[in-house]
């Protein structure tokens, strides 16, 4: 009888576990608009006695799954934070140390998502120190990457780089191995096939804390994207940033296609910052990228058109129409001032191009800014040698000179004389040796 009872109990445990996992899934799928956040929150509390029956690992997974479904619901951020903190307190009081660490890592990510970057930094430091002691590389990677993101948002680029380096070093010792890197390179040659598998539901998917190939690719893509962001914001090295974003795009297309939009968006931004806005339509027309659509991509296309046409009015209209996609994005906002300055310079160049002498008042009317702002912009352009000329403040005009062409004849002649001199010296040295 005891064996039968044990079997029934085991079956009951498995059945209850499956029911708990399916309830929020069906609830959120069928009643997404009217779902009550408190209902799923109560489900987490009500099922807590059941977690003592199943193993700690399975219980931890169930709690994280239920919590993720709660966080998917459109609810106030304060309520989401409160929910995660309640779960952390329960895990702490029940001595579930590994669950508590995983939940704290999730809280850091939530803080970053809602813009509370200072709070994320406060939790990340002590948690990383704790994780280093037990060498939990996988969780260290997740936390250090989130710490890098929060440090970037707080303009602390030094700490952001340090955290990213730590994330990469731990990734090299965990599942992001040399074999995974080789697989990532092979995936470039069979990208279409993998995307078809994903569409059919057969390809690798990202899993919470999973060590599968899909999870490894997803994390590698996240590392590459963060590297691209830091290179563009801190060092202004947009070529390197573009290459990192491209690697991130390839990884996301395989592991998490919806996030590929962000990588492509920053690729377009790098092209614009490199004064290669005219190449963006060609980039977006490539076979692997054609399927990526959204307002963020439309925003970058609109901005590229404004830069190509050198129209400040179109640029300002683009910022107004796509304010959320552009100025509310921390990465784009970090370059907003430089983008405005570049656009102003292009507009001024477009206006003065046909003339050898032009009134400042005419430039002011065409550009739509004050004369003081225009004079300052033109002065900076002259100092940076964006064009050659002089401002005649007495007459209120700008004299535009032709761009001087460097004659390389003199330079080549000097190089030739130096080469001949070295040849003569070598011949003289050999002749002296023969005479001896």
Automatic annotation (TrEMBL):
Secretion signal span: none
InterPro entries: 26S_Proteasome/COP9_Components, PCI_dom, Rpn6_C_helix, Rpn6_N, WH_DNA-bd_sf
One of the Pfam families matching this protein, by short name: RPN6_C_helix
Domain called PCI: residue spans: 237-405
PROSITE patterns, sorted: PCI (PS50250)
Family matches, as Gene3D superfamilies: 1.25.40.570
Entry's Gene Ontology cellular component terms: proteasome complex
Keywords: Proteasome
PANTHER family: 26S PROTEASOME NON-ATPASE REGULATORY SUBUNIT 11/COP9 SIGNALOSOME COMPLEX SUBUNIT 2
Assigned protein family: Belongs to the proteasome subunit S9 family.
Record protein name field: PCI domain-containing protein
Organism: Haemonchus placei
Organism placement in taxonomy: Eukaryota, Metazoa, Ecdysozoa, Nematoda, Chromadorea
